[in-house]
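Instructor's aside before we start: the two examples that follow are unrelated to each other. I chose them only because their records fit on one page, so don't look for a connection. First example below.
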Amino acid sequence: ARALAATGEMDVAVLTSRLEGRGDAGQSAGFEVLEPISSWSASQLGPALEAARSWKPDIVHVQHPSQGYDGPLPLLLGPAVRWRLGLPVGLTLHEPVGVNLDLPWMTASVRSANAIVVVRHTFRALVNWKVRWMIAGMDLCFIPNATTLPQVERTPALMRAVRDRYNAGARPLVAYFGFVYPSRGVHQLFQIADPRRHYLVIVGGKLDEAAAYHDEVSALAQQDNWKSACTMAGFLPGEQAAEVLACADAVVLSFLGGGGSWNTSIHGARLQGTFVLTTSREARGYDREQNVYYAEPGGVAEMRQALARHLGTRQAP
C-alpha cells in the first residue's frame, strides 16, 4: 500500500479488521485504513462491502491466504465485490497449500478474479488437480516477493543495544524471524543452535491457529539448558525486527517444506547483509553471492555444520 501510494498515480485504502492501538497507521504512509469489521467472519461481509462501496475504488485486491484471518471473509469478498458491486478484482495467491482448502468458495473466489498474481513461478505444478482445473485457461502474473522490513545500519551502538535488550552477553546471536508455524520448523532451531555457544532470539508472535505449536516452542525455550540462552521476542515493529536481523550473526529459517524466493523473511535478513541458513528443495549448499546456505529440509546435522562454518559471515546488503 505504501509503495502504490508513493507513485502518486492512485489513491490507496486498506480494508482490515479493527485493532486497538493501530491509530493512524496509514496516514503517514499516504494511504487510508478502513476498519469497518470486527473479524473476518462471514457475518462481516455486509460492512466490508459497504466500506468498499463508500470508498468507491476502481479495483479491489484480495490477498489469500494470509496468516491472521479468523474466518472465510477473504474468500467471499472477491465474488461479492465483482458480482454485487460490479468492480474488477485482483487476487494474489501466496501459498499453494492454502488454496487447496475450502474448494467451493475458493473456486468462486478464483473465478471472480480479473487478474491473478502468484509469487512462485512453478505455482501450477504445486497445486492439486482440482485447483489446476480451477485456474486452467487463466493467466497467472508472477511477481516475486520482496522484503517487508526496512534496511537498518549495523553500528556498534546498535549491536550493544540489541544485545543488552535480550541479555545476550558476548555470545553469537542466532535469530529467527517470521510466523511461529509448524511448517516453519522453528523447533529445529533448538537442535541446530547450541545453548553453550549461541544466544537465540525468536521474533514471531502467537497466532490462534498455531497456538499449540507456539506453546511447544515456548516450552523448548524454557528448558534448563535454554532458559538463559533464548528469548521469545514475540511480534516486533518492522524497524525493531530489522535491527535484530542486522545485529545477528546468523538468521536460521529451517522451513520443513523448503524455502525460496517467495519467503519475505529470507529477503528481510539478506537486506541487512546477515548470513542466512535456510532449506530448499531446489538449491543446495552455500551461495556466496547471496550469503545464503541452502540445506536439505529436515537436515539438522547439515544445518548445524553450516552454522558453525558460516556464522558471522557478512556481505554488503
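Example two begins here.
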Amino acid sequence: MEVPRANDLVPRFEDWLQTVGGWRQARVERFHRVEGGASNLTYRVGLAGGPRADVVLRLQRERGIFEPYDVLREARVLVALRRTAIPVPEVLFVEASSSALGAPFAVLEWIDAPHMGAAGPEADFRAYVAMVARVHTLDWRGAGLEFLAAHQSPEAALRAVLEAVRRRAAAWGCAADPSVARGFEILSRSLPGGGTLGLCQGDINVFNYLFRGGRVVGVVDWEQAAIADPRLDIGQLLALAHLKGAPWTDPRSTPFVREYEAAVGHPVLGLEWFRAFWLWQLLVIHRGWELFTGGEPWYGRSQAAAALDRALQEVSS
C-alpha cells in the first residue's frame, strides 16, 4: 500500500488516534516532518484535546538506504530500553496494519530537548561518550533484548553485516563497481579479532542524542539496533569524520575514542577495519541515495572511494 502525502496523513492519523481510548477528543493542530537522516519517516504532531501536547509519528519506509525497515522492531527495542538507565522515548502505540496510514507505524513520546549538534552549552561531550559506552556495555540479556541476538559470535555478526551491505549493493546495481567489490573482498578476509557481543545502536551520530542541562535526556533512532560488535558504532563516527574533513589519524588518538576508552576502562583495538567497513558501506549508500532521492548525499562518490582506498590499504597491509 502506498503511504499518503503529508496533507492526507493529517486527517487519517487524527481519525485513527480518535479510535484509541483516552484520545477520542484529540485533534491534530500541527504536523511537520522531522528532517535529518534517512530513517523511517518521522513527524512531530501537535495535538489539542488529548493527553499529550506533542507526539512523534514514526511511519515505516518501504524502500531506503537501510532497508529492510521494521518500525515495530524498533518500538520493541524502545519498550525494553525504558526499563534501563538509557533514556529513550516512551512508546505510546504501535500499529502493525497498513490500513490506516499505508504502512505500519509507532507513536512515541516527544522529548522536548535539542540534539547535541544544536544544544550549544546544554550539551556535554563527555556525557555523550559516556552514554554511548552505557549503550555498549548494557546487560542486553537482562534488558530483554535477546530477540536482537541473531548470531552466536562477534565474527558471525560481522560476516552478517558484510553480507547485508553486499546484498544492498547487488540490489542497487553497484556490487560490481571495482571499489565496492574490492572492499567486500578485503574486508571479508581480514575480519578483526578481539570482539564482543554488545548492544549497538546502529547510529551514534550526535543528532540522535538529546541534551538538557548537560545531561543526555533522550537517545533516539534505534531502527538499526543489533547485538553485534560495538566497534561497528565507533567505525561509523570515524568514517563520517573523515568525509567531513577530519585528518587521517590513528583511530585511538581521536577525542571520541580516547574518552570512550576511559569510560569502558580498556583499550579499543582494531578500529581500522571498522573505519574501512563504514567507508565501504557509505560508498554503497551513495548509490542507494541516488536511486531513492535522485540526488547525492552530502558527500561525493569520489570522495568516499578515495577514503575507502586509503582505509583498505591500511587494513590489508
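The chain has nine helices and nine strands.
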